[in-house]
Design brief:
The protein has four helices and five strands; from the N terminus they run αββββααβα. It is of the alpha+beta class. It has one domain: Nonspecific Lipid-transfer Protein, Chain A. Strand 1 and strand 2 form a beta hairpin. It is globular. The termini are close together. It comes from Streptomyces yaizuensis. Pfam families: SCP2. This is SCP2 sterol-binding domain-containing protein.
Length: 109
């Protein structure tokens, strides 16, 4: 059974790769735009991460996408780079940080 967008974000902390984030202090944010809308931020401070439902005022990188695309990426059914290249995933802010996201979180549910 599929998880909801909110449940996937709640599970994000359990999929966080602490080792890949050592020395990193950044905030990622996701804006989900359609059927199951919302904003979630994930703050990383030197290898530790925490989810911030509702988001933050000034994230380093923001991903904007539909719930369907986000669920597919989070569950490992959609390649994030392909979603970006086809316009299904928009990225604002620190592109280098955006490129690190696949290493920061273990995909697949």
């Amino acid at each position: 059974m599929s998880m909801t967008v909110g449940e996937l974000f709640a599970a994000l902390s359990t999929r966080f790769n602490h080792d890949a984030a050592v020395g990193l202090t950044r905030t990622l944010q996701w804006r989900i735009t359609d059927a199951d809308p919302g904003v979630w931020a994930f703050e990383i401070v030197d290898g530790r991460g925490r989810l911030i439902p509702g988001g933050v005022a000034e994230p380093d990188t923001t991903f904007t996408t539909s719930s369907e695309t986000w669920m597919a990426i989070a569950e490992g059914r959609q390649d994030a780079m392909r979603a970006f290249m086809t316009g299904k995933l928009k990225v604002e802010g620190d592109m280098m940080l955006a490129m690190k996201v696949p290493k920061l979180f273990v995909t697949g549910v």
